[in-house]
Structure to design on (234 residues):
């Protein structure tokens, strides 16, 4: 059985990854990690929190979605014991959002962005009542100040120097209809990691949420191949 650690998107709750986790099936042990909902932590602080929570008694894979991508990249460049492979989903190594959104973040007193605009960016025409309800429920669990802090951190992050240092198997999942992080951004990430595999889907930014089954199948195949390769080289 493979172990898969999940790092969440901007909400940090892990609630939006539940269907993907279920789609991974009984042969994958899924360990979702969540971030504090009331504490504004920068990327280095979140990295320290994650490293303290990673499995220490068995090999594992790491999936980093969207906001958590820079954390996954840093962990891949300086891997903890047991990390066998990295999956990056709809993510970035440097400022991913349209520059016009930056000035909107500081003055918003009660929310990150209007829910309707956020829904348009992450779901677009793929939105369903169920997905919209999941998004709203996840955001309700997190302090608006924390969401704003994370968004500003994403606008300032730059871990491009870490990409060529990654020497483990890497799979990059990308969505061709992503309105939040253009596919060219995530494509550049894959191009700068030696030997990285790339898989494109017709989906919005919420790739794992819209296509949990196909994504889980691709991740399972990647983990099986990487684990077999590791055994063959041991």
């Amino acid at each position: 059985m493979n172990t898969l650690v999940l790092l969440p998107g901007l909400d940090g709750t892990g609630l939006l990854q539940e269907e993907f986790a279920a789609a991974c099936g009984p042969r994958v042990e899924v360990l979702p990690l969540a971030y504090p909902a009331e504490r504004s932590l920068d990327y280095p602080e979140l990295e320290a929190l994650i490293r303290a929570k990673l499995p220490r008694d068995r090999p594992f894979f790491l999936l980093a979605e969207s906001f958590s991508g820079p954390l996954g990249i840093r962990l891949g460049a300086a891997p903890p014991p047991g990390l066998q492979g990295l999956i990056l989903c709809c993510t970035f190594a440097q400022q991913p959002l349209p520059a016009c959104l930056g000035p909107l973040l500081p003055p918003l007193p009660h929310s990150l962005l209007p829910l309707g605009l956020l829904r348009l960016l992450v779901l677009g025409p793929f939105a369903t009542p169920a997905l919209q309800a999941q998004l709203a429920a996840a955001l309700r669990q997190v302090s608006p100040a924390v969401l704003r802090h994370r968004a500003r951190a994403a606008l300032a992050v730059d871990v491009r120097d870490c990409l060529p240092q990654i020497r483990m198997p890497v799979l990059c999942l990308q969505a061709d209809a992503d309105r939040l992080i253009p596919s060219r951004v995530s494509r550049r990430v894959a191009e700068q990691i030696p030997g990285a595999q790339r898989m494109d889907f017709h989906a919005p930014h919420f790739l794992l949420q819209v296509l949990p089954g196909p994504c889980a199948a691709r991740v399972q195949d990647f983990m099986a191949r990487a684990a077999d390769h590791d055994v063959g080289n041991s």
